[in-house]
Design brief:
The protein is α+β, with helices and mostly antiparallel strands. The protein has 11 helices and 4 strands. It has helices spanning about 1-35, 45-55, 60-80, 80-105, 115-135, 145-155, 160-170, 175, 180-205, 215-230, 260-270; strands at about 205-215, 230-240, 245-255, 275-280. Helix 1 (about 1-35) packs antiparallel against helix 5, helix 5 (about 115-135) runs parallel beside helix 9 (about 180-205) and helix 7 (about 160-170) runs antiparallel to helix 9. The longest helix has about 35 residues, at about 1-35.
């Protein structure tokens, strides 16, 4: 019974992830076809290569995207294993479908004259879409595969490898347009989309960490447990100036709960010393689940 329930829960979670990945890829494809392609703006990744081929020869973007990714997927399966490639295969297939459908039906740009505005909106949509895909442990293929393969053999981080690939692709647009402006637009799209990805991935994990120094640590710890329903850790410390022992309360909480904690501490001990810092992610009971 327990095994069956666990299997059902795992299956439901997987279905949810694939739905989220599909939605994210639709946003990414919309950003390209409705905003970037009509203004001949190039960004990074295999999508950027597909865009350059489209600008030069008129070959639909999805054909180049699929062709290059098929080669990369074969390499990924051999080097990284099939398990790594399952969701990547799904991501490549779905994104190829969206790119082909959207490029066929979207014949008029959503923003006609303002190229920079199209650049900003397209970057936000692409970044939001990829960020959503990442939150569901998905992948759109392309330079993600290249970066993962490079990272396996070379001491280069995934982010840096992807950055190098994207800058080279964007800069190569100069050979086609002979325009520095197009390169600038492409870099702006890359920066906006990268920043948006970070907001989407880490924005849902807006947690804070408190260090609270107070002689009334017992009352404060009890009230945080009861009123905020958060776990508390009390550790021993020493004030180096006073050479007196002190108790330090450590609390992990959601950002939305920080005001309640401040009010609670102030009511119990107005002279308490509090340090608050933002943390990128907190994983465990009461926070985000660890996904592998």
């Amino acid at each position: 019974m327990y095994i069956e329930k666990k299997y059902t829960s795992k299956k439901a979670r997987a279905i949810k992830d694939y739905v989220v990945i599909t939605f994210g890829l639709s946003l990414y494809a919309l950003g390209w076809t409705a905003f970037l392609l009509p203004h001949k703006i190039t960004s990074g990744g295999i999508s950027g290569i597909g865009a350059l081929v489209y600008y030069k020869s008129g070959v639909p973007m999805w054909i180049t995207f699929l062709s290059i990714n098929l080669v990369l997927l074969v390499a990924a399966i051999k080097v990284l294993g099939f398990r790594f490639s399952i969701r990547t295969i799904y991501g490549v297939a779905v994104l190829t479908l969206f790119l082909s459908v959207f490029q066929h039906f979207i014949t008029v740009p959503f923003v006609t004259e303002e190229a920079f505005m199209a650049c900003v909106i397209g970057g936000i949509l692409c970044g939001t879409g990829i960020g959503i895909v990442f939150t569901a442990n998905g992948s759109s293929g392309g330079t993600d595969i290249v970066a993962a393969i490079i990272n396996k053999y070379k001491n280069i981080t995934l982010g840096r490898a992807i950055l190098y690939c994207d800058v080279i692709i964007i800069s190569s647009s100069y050979l086609l347009f002979h325009s520095i402006e197009k390169i600038v637009y492409g870099l702006v799209v890359m920066l906006i989309s990268t920043y948006t990805v970070d907001l989407v991935v880490n924005g849902v994990r807006q947690s804070v960490q408190f260090f609270i120094f107070s002689g009334k640590y017992k009352e404060i710890a009890d009230q945080i447990n009861k009123d905020v329903n958060r776990g508390v850790t009390v550790v021993d410390g020493m004030g180096w100036y006073s050479k007196q022992p002190v108790k330090v309360i450590i609390v992990m909480a959601k950002k939305s709960e920080s005001v309640r904690i401040f009010h609670l501490v102030k009511q119990i001990d107005p002279d308490a010393f509090i340090s608050q810092s933002s943390v990128i992610g907190v994983y465990g009971k009461g926070f985000d689940k660890i996904k592998a």
